[in-house]
Amino acid sequence: MATQSPAPRRADLLFRNATVVDGTGAARRSADVAVTGDRIVAVGDCAGIAADHTVDCSGRVLAPGFIDAHTHDDGYLLVHRDMTPKVSQGITTVVTGNCGISVAPLLSGAPPQPLDLLGPAALFRFDTFAQWLDALRAAPANVNVVPLLGHSTLRVRAMPELDRPANDAEIAAMRAEVRLAMEAGAFGVSTGTFYPPAAAATEAEIIAVCDPVRTHGGLYSTHLRDETDAIVPSIEEALRIGRALDCPVVFSHHKVAGKRNHGRSAETLGLLAEAARLQPLCLDCHPYPATSTMLRLDRVRQSTRTLITWSTGYPAAGGRDFHELMQELGLDEEALLARLRPAAAIYFIMDERDVARIAQFPLTMFGSDGLPFDPRPHPRQWGTFPRILARMVREEQLLTLEAAIHKMSGLAAQQYGLQDRGRIAPGAFADLVLFDAQRVQDRATFEDPLQLSTGIDGVWVNGAQVWQPSAQAGDAAGSALPAFSGRVLRRVATDHTVTTTPS
Ligand SMILES: [Zn+2]
Question: Is there a domain that residue 5 lies in?
Fold first, then answer.
């Protein structure tokens, strides 16, 4: 095998004898990978290259660092710079600000639900989006950041009451914030019309507020208005918004929720495949049939089981089943909701076959959607990527290893416009994960969610190592290293190439 560029004689770091899965979807191959500074400098037979450090990768897979396409890590990045829940999974880049909620720009001592899912009120201390980006750059974390601006955050900032559409002055104020954020480096805007702060926002309001997304070549990401019975009109609304803004649409955590909608992913994916012939779009999802967000009764009623993760009104409810609590306290649904809130919960709301079908869809990326400050989070915050590799690839063979890695890296880099990321090739940034495909395993569960995965043997971000396995044989875990080599990334406007063959 030949290197693809003139081979250097020395490198900082050399990965020898790796099974390289390069992120493009191409078949795995045996190769060495040389890194100097923050870039990959050679891929192939690097026997002639002397290196300061050599990593023997025999029997293991070297892949591009995983891109977590959907997170709520905006505030967590600032106070837990090691990013252990993420780097321990092989994640090297996180997309923030999803579902309409971003930590900036907002000064608030008591942000309303669901903004509080982002963490303590003290995090809402940035009057501009640029100030938050500056804070990330001044004290970088162990992962790269792809920042989105949240429309609900803008509404909380601009509107005295949230249960109505924005008026012209409020729209103008929010549009000015979108323009500033896009100039500062936002990749686009997210909405969450499912949630109270934005439920009254009309399609016209969103299009007017997001206008600078069009002129700045950004993208539009959305937690749909309804993921249950009205899923189809909700998808159609998002597609219209994307066309009006002439920008790609990211469908967040795609799902069909509620028992009577189980199986309908065949219909929604058909609709999305058709639409993808005409306009750019992509999806993200995670590999669990349960979701998690603020406590609300519509979700409780659609779920087969609801687990409280935290409750300010009744802290002892953390970890308890909603229906068991109703019995125990002798309260009906409304009375229990009133007793618990503010609170958050995990909802068992999807069908495994829908989860599998959505994961297999060619335009689907993977995103953990975890809530990092939740004391008993959904296990997706710590387990998403190893679970895909262990369960969907190794055990159930729903995806080939090459296809799964492509969704975790190359596809996401392409969809978000990340230049020289998401693939192993000379010239690309050295965001890398080394893992054992036979041994990789998530250990976070609904009962015990704060558990490190096994089988992730090393993670590098911009050439610097951020995760190492435990030195002790038999010890499952590893530890984060204080490299803090993550960067705030910049979007490269894509040419809006429409994918014509989402088979
Ligand atoms: Zn969401």
Answer: no
